[in-house]
Each structure stands twice: as C-alpha cells, then as structure tokens.
Write a structure and sequence with these properties.
about 180 residues; alpha+beta; three-stranded antiparallel beta sheet; 6 helices; Cyt_c-like_dom_sf; Cyt_c-like_dom; C-type cytochrome
Length: about 180
C-alpha cells in the first residue's frame, strides 16, 4: 500500500488538474459561441453584395478589411449629431479618431493572429492597446464591452480564432484624423 500511495496521489492530482482546465474542444466550442453571439463577424468579415443585399463574404471569414480595397478620401459628414462614416464592406470606419480598418483575426502568420500568443490577445482586449502596450485599438471595436469578458472567455475566443482557415490579407494601418 505504501508504494501505491504516491501513485494514487499523483493520479488524483492529475484528475483534479484536468477537471479544472476545460478540454481544448470545449474551450474552442465556447470560443465559437462567444464569437458568434458577440457580433465579431459584423465588422471582421467583409460584406459583399448578394442576391438579397449585403451578406458576409464567407471566403474572407474574419479576414478584416480587404487589402485590395483602397479607400477614397472620407466624405464630409453633414452638420448635426453625425459621428461616423462606414465603408460598404463594414470594415473601414472614419470618425474623429481618423480612419480605422478592422483587423485580420485569422491565424495567418504574416497578416493575422498567427504569431500572437494567447496572452497577447488577452492583453490587447484588457488594455485596449495592441499586445497590451502598442497603439490603441480604435473604434468601432467595443473594447469597453469586451474587456469585461473573463480571461477564460478571452482565451476561448483566441482558441477558436486559431482554428479558422488562415487568410493572407494585410489590413492597412489606421489613418490619423484629417487636419482642418
């Protein structure tokens, strides 16, 4: 019995550790659920014109602003309470912050999240800054809402995004506000 005690203790500790950490498939499915209920596709998957009007371009699922779509100068907003202008793809937004382009969230290593760590992703959402220390994440990204997700939720979102097909799509850098 004395020789079995360390083995039984190790097995019990392993079982507790495995129970505390969700299986990867469970984490990915939780991430899929969060992404699909949090409106991520609304901006990070470009819209295209379909038979019934604008629809997500599923060939560019979560690929962000199309690199070949060079935006013309931002139109002037009319006087009044207007704040933003959005592209027809819903991937470029202009407002007082300048022009922002939705990011490529696919795991492409050159143009998406393929070289990001789970911690890079979590810190970006927590701080509202790229990698937790870089440039600010700009509107319309609802950082003020998503930063309230738990670490487990954000890790699940990242795990799901890593399962997507990588799409090579270099999103432009944001543009500063127009000088008047």
């Amino acid at each position: 019995m004395k020789t079995l005690l360390p083995l039984l203790t190790l097995l019990a500790a392993t079982a507790v550790a495995q129970a505390a950490e969700p299986a990867p498939r469970d984490r990915i499915e939780h991430g899929r659920y969060l992404v699909n209920t949090s409106g991520c596709m609304d901006c990070h998957t470009p819209l295209k014109m379909g038979a019934n009007g604008p629809e997500p371009d599923m060939a560019r699922l979560f690929a962000g602003h199309p690199q070949e779509l060079v935006m013309p100068p931002v139109p002037a907003l009319p006087a009044g309470p207007w704040l933003v202008v959005s592209s027809a793809t819903n991937t470029a937004w202009a407002g007082p912050w300048g022009v922002s382009f939705t990011a490529n969230l696919t795991p492409d290593p050159e143009t998406g999240l393929g070289r990001w760590s789970e911690n890079d992703f979590v810190q970006t959402i927590r701080t509202g800054r790229h990698f937790g220390r870089g440039r600010p994440v700009l509107p319309p990204m609802p950082i003020a809402v998503y930063r309230h997700m738990t670490d487990d939720d954000l890790k699940a979102v990242f795990a799901y995004l890593q399962t997507l097909p990588p799409v090579r799509n270099k999103v432009p850098e944001p543009l500063p506000p127009a000088q008047h």
